[in-house]
Amino acid sequence: MYAVKSTVDVPRFVKKIGMLPAISLVLGLTVPSAWSTLGVNSVLSKRLVQLGLPEPLEVQQLAWPVVSTGADAVVVAEAGSGKTLSYLVPLVQLLLEPIDPSRSSRAVIALPSADLSAQVLGVAQKLVKGTKLVCAPAASAGSPRSDDSNIIVGTVRECLPYVFGPKGKKAAGAPAPVLTRLVIDEADLLMAGLRRKGRATTQMPVMEMLNEVKKGKKRTEGALGATGLSSKKKDDLLEKERSHQLILVSATVPAHGYLSIDLSTYISTCLYIYLSQHL
After folding, report:
1. CB under 8 Å to 50, separation ≥6 — which residues?
2. Smallest Cα–Cα separation from 159: which of 226, 102, 209?
3. pTM
4. Cα–Cα separations (whole angstroms), residue 135 to 146, 172, 202
5. pLDDT per position as a tens digit, 134-178
6. What is the CATH number of domain 2-274?
7. 3-state secondary structure of 109
8. Spatial distance between the Cα atoms of 38 and 32, rounded to a whole number of angstroms
9. Would you list the domain boundaries of the chain?
């Protein structure tokens, strides 16, 4: 699904993205009057009001119905539009009220710099105050890593160890891997200049992260390949047992980045949110 300001912007945006064929346009959005109207639970809604945020902004309204169901998303909206809460609010609710209570899950939020990481961590800590969730910075190089936190925030390099899953194919009957709800924020900065091929590109931390998402998808597909299930049941089980939810967030579509790598190999179901008149 695309969400756009006007039909004038659609051809330019679709040409720049040039990836997954998609899809319906959402125009003339009805603005919910409160967080609870979106489906945000009472505890989280009350906390948002306490933080001086009585109503969701446009990008938060558009992101909620997809991110809160565990689907992948690409969120493109201008600075100051409310992108951070557009992923934090649904992720916090998913952690508080998981779709599949039998699965362990956590959110990992990767950013370009320590300063930005500290800012997002501060927002996350305020949001979860009074809940059972624990937010923590990602362990820096040489520091002991803790897997007890529900939300981990850090630079891409610091977050890498939290993204990697178990090696090899998943054995029949083994529990599903920890579901990592991965956010790559400021993706336009992190992915600008990436090329399809080249050693330097594949060794960049953001590409290591994306490649691990792709490997996790292939591991699950491999484990399901010998089950003899129908295609429909395989698709349903793959979605249930996948190892990552991937959310890419950016202020712009870079001239070199999304154009030069095929995100369809990393993203399954996907919402594109486009809220800028200047991309």
Report:
1. none
2. 209
3. 0.79
4. 11, 33, 30
5. 999 998 755 656 678 999 999 999 999 898 865 545 445 555 568
6. 3.40.50.300
7. strand
8. 7
9. 2-274
174 neighbors 220 (Cβ within 8 angstroms)? no
pLDDT tier, 31 (very low <50, low <70, confident <90, very high otherwise):
low
- Nearest CA-CA partner of 162 in 105, 101, 222, 89: 105
Report the SS3 class of residue 220: helix
CA-based nearest residue to 185, from 71, 90, 76: 76
According to DSSP, the residues that pair with 26 across neighbouring strands are 3
CB-based contact 212:182 (threshold 8 Å) = no
- Alpha helices (H) along 57-144: 58-67, 83-96, 114-128
Q: Are 209 and 163 in contact (CB under 8 A)?
A: yes
Are 63 and 86 within 8 A, CB to CB?
yes
| Cβ contacts of 255 within 8 Å, gap of 6 or more | 192
At 86-131, the pLDDT tens digits run 999 999 999 999 988 888 899 999 999 999 999 999 999 999 999 9
Question: Which of left, alpha, beta for 130 (phi over 0: left; psi -120 to 50: alpha)?
Answer: left
**Structure-token pair, residue 38:** 């979106």
